[in-house]
Amino acid sequence: KIIHANHAAIKILAVNEQSIEEENYDDLIQGLNPELTVENLMKRCEFEPESEVFESAGRYYDIRYDRFKDENGKDVGLIMIIQDITQRMKLESMQMDFVANVSHELKTPLTTIKSYTETLLDGAVSDPETARSFLGIIDSEADRMNRLVKDLLQLSRMENNQEKWNMKESDLVKLLTSAVTKVALTAEAKKQKLNCLFEADARVAVVMDKDRIEQVILNVLANAINYTQEGGRIDIDLVVQDREAHIIIDDNGIGIPEDEQSRVFERFFRVDKARSRSMGGTGLGLAISKQIIEEHNGRIELTSRENKGTKVKIILPLSPAVTRGIPNIE
Description:
Blueprint: H1 7-13, H2 17-22, H3 25-28, H4 38-44, E1 50-56, E2 59-69, E3 75-84, H5 86-121, H6 128-159, E4 168-171, H7 172-189, E5 193-196, E6 205-208, H8 210-226, E7 233-241, E8 244-251, H9 273-278, H10 285-295, E9 299-305, E10 309-317, H11 320-323
Parallel strand pairs: 5-7
Antiparallel strand pairs: 1-2, 2-3, 4-6, 7-8, 8-10, 9-10
Helix pairs in contact: 5-6, 6-10, 7-8, 8-10
């Protein structure tokens, strides 16, 4: 018989208070773990308190138990603490995956740097052309490591609320036009067409950290350029609806398989790992972009069709001054 069970225990056992009073423990525990009978637990904790972790119906539990004795030292029952540790297990798994990914991402350029350095030390440095080529590769890999560390530090600052935000009311059209100009030469090198569908002389006021929002726009534009074939098309638009500004970047590139689209904002996730690394990507750009936009009370959405193209929407709330009809744009 169960003498006492708090509300958390009742919830974990998925029963009600009446069941606790009327049914015996061994019957109630069957739905959670049939191995946790009184007889089994009493045997396991015969000499000292015991604990174990088990899984049930997709959730993880930490259970600690010991014999309960009266003032004479006689066993009169069992005391048990059950804790739902599902969220903790997920966080620990994420941390382990994160460390493994960081280690892998750093190991790759380090291996390249070491290999080329050893070749130079073995005599290749005497050939100026070879030395220049090798040093260029080493410099490129060092830059890649630097980008990774900078991205990791930025993610860490945002997750710990240590990022400094310079929020001001600014013109989103002007910022978008500037971002498109910065990537124009890269697109031109691939003979791609950047179609600006928005009105360049319009004004859309948004309270934002301009540098951070530009970082997001440039990241999305860079992805569109990188994953769109030569001669491809990238449409850039900005529309206002329901007191929100929608930046829309739509390409006719290689697209993303449907079963992988839900993961594109995960850290280190890449649809095409080899291609992404060859272009210097850290696998953190969209994860950082999502955090930046959410800090602005906005959303970033992605839809894609494989071999057809990808559309990304960056949605930001309009400045309160705009919704009140008061123009005040930096």
